[in-house]
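Continuing the series of single-chain predictions for the mutant panel. This is the parent chain; the variants come on the following pages.
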Amino acid sequence: MLPDRLLLYTADGDAALSAVLAEGVHPVSSLVRRSSLEDVFLRLTGRTLVD
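Parent structure:
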């Protein structure tokens, strides 16, 4: 859990960011990126990868 962040899992990150901005929410910063294998692992297991 990241108390200072909002993570959105969506098929279209640009559209999701546009919708957030249209609702009047203006984040200090934003990042739209494709999922990594670590993201998939976290989503499926709820745990992060550890070496």
